[in-house]
Amino acid sequence: MATNPVHSPSAGRRPVSWGTPLTYALALAVAAVSIAPILYVIVGGFRTTPQIVADPGGLPDPWVFDNYTRVLTQSKFWQQAFNSGVIALGTTLGVVVLGMAAAFVLARYTFRGREGLYTFFTLGLLFPAGAAILPLYLMLRDLDLINSYYAVILPQVAFQLPLTIVILRPFLSAIPRELEDAAAIDGAGRLGFLWRIALPLSRPALVTVGVLAFVASWNSFLLPLLVLGDVDLHTLPLGVQNFSSQFSTDTAGVLAFTSLAMLPALFFFTLAEKQIVGGLQGAVKG
Amino acid sequence: MTSTDQTRFPAGGVSAPPAGRRPAGRPSSRRAETRRKWYEIIGLTTPALVVYVMFVLVPMGFAVYYSLFRWRGVGPPTEYVGFKNYTLAFQDPIFLDALRNNAVIVFGSLLIQGPVALGIALLLNRRFRGRAVFRLLVFVPYVLAEVTVGIMWKLILAEGGTVDALLRSLGLGGLVQAWLADLDVVIWTLLFVLTWKYVGFAIILLLAGLSNVPHELTEAAAIDGASWWQTQRHVTLPLLGPTIRIWMFLSMIGSLQVFDVIWVTSVPAVRSLGASGTMATYMVDNGFFARLWGYGNAVAVILFVISFVAALLFQRFLLRRDIEGAITKGAN
């Protein structure tokens, strides 16, 4: 480590240095590569297509807001954002409720076959969601669910359950048994314990699995592509794809639509960054 | 990074013993108690089980069945053809190209993203002011929807687009390619886009692994006169083994199934010539859009078997220790 190692045995708060110039230069370069394309799209939305064609790398001159207002007023942007929101919320709710119920049983009940059941659920982590998409479509068609929110929500809940249970179970197992005994003495059954103690205590873990489910749903493309043929049900990813192929000559419009579609994700990410990052890391750590 | 610890309850092991039952009274009430416990178990797990079995496991079973028929998707399948769809797939040069493209993406991702992510993670693990902001920025591409990323790069890489203009202004006009149209180039362009999108994920995992390396060890090495680089090489890296292996596993599975970015970024014409398609895009093109349902399902089964076998092999030989209890428990 470049900063001189301070001999503080408890390794508590060590002074944060300004680092070497090289560290900064490298970090800046890395950040630029990550962010520059995104900025390009957002700024490009403020130019006109002729401007872009004449000088692809230039800055807006003058700045035009027409693209953004056009997308917001004339396209199906709002409706698609609404559909994405309904599906993402439905998925999140389903994942949290079903995952919590199952994880609670797997964590707090002793019964024969419990470990087998857990392994059975975790097997889903190895099931590639993409591979099942064709038979899934056929099944949803036979169930008459095509062109409904359920056609996206139900399979998304199902594929998110294994990860959810893997994250929630250790969390619920770690609730001290004394709390359960105390609840029992107060006359609460196991269900009372689940509702009044386990649920509030697991809020951080529930937020994590909820956020992961929400983001996965918000970004998902393949499943909606197949099961939402009805244009009025299209989600934002489908909308971006359609808009870009329908108005492919309107480069500025596509840039504006793409950045508007990005904004909710970026906004959501800044709000829930800790949960997303922590959840991914936690899930991997076991 | 401390956020992991905040989101998890007291570092409980996966196999922490479940809380026991309450002491039971007389035999009859104990029996009633047992019965009630089973009602609760069944009531709480059934919804999750039903959804999981119905939408994750059953479809794969159906895929195997459908794959044995020639079937256009109308009415029940009747024209049984045995394993013909499978042999057809392996005789189709476009499918073999898809397999090759998947291989390029699997190994390309591991070989490029791995070292790049490791370098950046080590960089962002140094203590300096503003580090948190850099960590955040690096992770942004991973959060964006695949479709958005695909459209974005499609525009940037268009002929006469930004990348071309940038190269020309740097005097590197000779490097300009038809990034997404040249049949020999497109797969490498896609690999670049995938790398840009997913390297942040690898970095985040590695940073989590790095935060678990005790400061005492690196400090001790520094006191003993080891340089920063020697410390990373001989102390930090060996301790990162489990994290790297788990990332490799997730990256491999993701690369085998990759669909969205490929579908959106590369033109169908280029895909249909085999230059950029993957198993997943091939499956959707043939099964869904060309309505060759029996054939498409056969491709689905092939994709599934390849992913599943790769996952099992990887687990068997590399991951066993790392996610003990999560996936492997009971399977070995």
TrEMBL record, chain A:
<feature type="transmembrane region" description="Helical">
    <location>
        <begin position="118"/>
        <end position="137"/>
    </location>
</feature>
<keyword id="KW-0813">Transport</keyword>
<keyword id="KW-1003">Cell membrane</keyword>
<feature type="domain" description="ABC transmembrane type-1">
    <location>
        <begin position="81"/>
        <end position="272"/>
    </location>
</feature>
<dbReference type="GO" id="GO:0005886">
    <property type="term" value="C:plasma membrane"/>
</dbReference>
<feature type="transmembrane region" description="Helical">
    <location>
        <begin position="21"/>
        <end position="43"/>
    </location>
</feature>
<feature type="transmembrane region" description="Helical">
    <location>
        <begin position="86"/>
        <end position="106"/>
    </location>
</feature>
<dbReference type="GO" id="GO:0055085">
    <property type="term" value="P:transmembrane transport"/>
</dbReference>
<protein>
    <submittedName>
        <fullName>Carbohydrate ABC transporter membrane protein 2, CUT1 family</fullName>
    </submittedName>
</protein>
<comment type="similarity">
    <text>Belongs to the binding-protein-dependent transport system permease family.</text>
</comment>
<feature type="transmembrane region" description="Helical">
    <location>
        <begin position="149"/>
        <end position="168"/>
    </location>
</feature>
<keyword id="KW-1133">Transmembrane helix</keyword>
<feature type="transmembrane region" description="Helical">
    <location>
        <begin position="252"/>
        <end position="272"/>
    </location>
</feature>
<dbReference type="InterPro" id="IPR035906">
    <property type="entry name" value="MetI-like_sf"/>
</dbReference>
<keyword id="KW-0472">Membrane</keyword>
<dbReference type="Pfam" id="PF00528">
    <property type="entry name" value="BPD_transp_1"/>
</dbReference>
<feature type="transmembrane region" description="Helical">
    <location>
        <begin position="205"/>
        <end position="228"/>
    </location>
</feature>
<dbReference type="InterPro" id="IPR000515">
    <property type="entry name" value="MetI-like"/>
</dbReference>
<keyword id="KW-0812">Transmembrane</keyword>
TrEMBL record, chain B:
<feature type="transmembrane region" description="Helical">
    <location>
        <begin position="38"/>
        <end position="66"/>
    </location>
</feature>
<feature type="transmembrane region" description="Helical">
    <location>
        <begin position="246"/>
        <end position="264"/>
    </location>
</feature>
<dbReference type="GO" id="GO:0055085">
    <property type="term" value="P:transmembrane transport"/>
</dbReference>
<dbReference type="InterPro" id="IPR035906">
    <property type="entry name" value="MetI-like_sf"/>
</dbReference>
<feature type="transmembrane region" description="Helical">
    <location>
        <begin position="292"/>
        <end position="314"/>
    </location>
</feature>
<feature type="transmembrane region" description="Helical">
    <location>
        <begin position="136"/>
        <end position="156"/>
    </location>
</feature>
<dbReference type="InterPro" id="IPR000515">
    <property type="entry name" value="MetI-like"/>
</dbReference>
<dbReference type="Pfam" id="PF00528">
    <property type="entry name" value="BPD_transp_1"/>
</dbReference>
<keyword id="KW-1003">Cell membrane</keyword>
<feature type="transmembrane region" description="Helical">
    <location>
        <begin position="103"/>
        <end position="124"/>
    </location>
</feature>
<comment type="similarity">
    <text>Belongs to the binding-protein-dependent transport system permease family.</text>
</comment>
<keyword id="KW-0812">Transmembrane</keyword>
<dbReference type="GO" id="GO:0005886">
    <property type="term" value="C:plasma membrane"/>
</dbReference>
<keyword id="KW-1133">Transmembrane helix</keyword>
<dbReference type="InterPro" id="IPR051393">
    <property type="entry name" value="ABC_transporter_permease"/>
</dbReference>
<feature type="compositionally biased region" description="Low complexity">
    <location>
        <begin position="10"/>
        <end position="27"/>
    </location>
</feature>
<feature type="region of interest" description="Disordered">
    <location>
        <begin position="1"/>
        <end position="31"/>
    </location>
</feature>
<keyword id="KW-0813">Transport</keyword>
<protein>
    <submittedName>
        <fullName>Carbohydrate ABC transporter membrane protein 1, CUT1 family</fullName>
    </submittedName>
</protein>
<feature type="transmembrane region" description="Helical">
    <location>
        <begin position="185"/>
        <end position="208"/>
    </location>
</feature>
<keyword id="KW-0472">Membrane</keyword>
<feature type="domain" description="ABC transmembrane type-1">
    <location>
        <begin position="99"/>
        <end position="314"/>
    </location>
</feature>
